[in-house]
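Hi F.,

I've been meaning to write this up properly since the lab meeting, where we talked about keeping a consistent format for the predictions we share between groups. The idea is simple: the sequence comes first, exactly as it goes in, then the structure tokens exactly as they come out, then a line or two of notes. No screenshots and no reformatting. I'm using this chain as the first example so we have something concrete to point to.
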Amino acid sequence: MKVAVVGATGRTGLECTKQLLEQGHSVSAICRSSAKAYDLFSCIPRPQRAHLNVCEVSNFEVEALKASLEGCEQLYLLLVEYHSWAYSVRTNGSFLKI
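Output, unedited:
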């Protein structure tokens, strides 16, 4: 199953991403810094990393966020600053559908 993890470089997001990969899922790790993500995800075994797609998206890039969620069947929203993402979605008057 393809799963998206928003906030994948946080403490909870990293653990969630690792467990999803261990369970055999494909993961779209959505984060603000791909450099930080690649550094953090280096602890994940290489065969599992083959099923990991890192998507760098800033808080207000709604179209980029929609694109990174394409084809995902589940979403884990693990953000500390949730209000900034919620605001960006409401500002454009649309709801992101998976």
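Notes:
The helical segments are 11-22, 34-40, 46-49, 62-68, 82-91.
The chain has a mean pLDDT of 83.

If this format works for you, I'll send the rest the same way.

G.
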